[in-house]
Automatic annotation (TrEMBL):
Residue stretches making up the HMA domain: 1-55, 80-128
The protein, known as: Heavy metal-associated isoprenylated plant protein 26
GO terms for MF: metal ion binding
Domain of life where this protein originates: Eukaryota
Parts of the chain that traverse the membrane: none
Pfam families the UniProt entry points to: HMA
Entries under PROSITE patterns matching the protein: HMA_2
Species whose genome carries this gene: Noccaea caerulescens (Alpine penny-cress)
Cross-referenced SUPFAM superfamilies: HMA, heavy metal-associated domain
Amino acid sequence: LHCVGCARKIERSILKIRGVEEVVMDMNANQVTIKGVLDPQAVCNKIKKKTKRMAKVISPLPAAEGEPLPPIITSQVSGLITVELNVNMHCEACAEQLKKKILKMRGVQTTVTEHTTGKVIVTGTMDE
């Protein structure tokens, strides 16, 4: 993320995903954190498609071919899931914009972006 405009575009896109409760942008870390009940890879793919930039899931890690999926961090009480993504963020403005976009998505509760590391942590309830 290099600017507020890019971040907002990404954040809005993420917030539209069902189950996303919160989006946190960290432009310094170049990271978007998405919270919600969702499929981490689906969110990552949507970000790649929308931004036409490289993005990858940091946590939970995608399963290798033939391996079982890693456990998803879930709250027993609320059904929340936390996903960590690696997103290219060029500046703090991009991280903030991305955070705002992700937060607008249904189901996203919290989002943490780290611009310097390019990480985005999203927590929320999603079934997609």
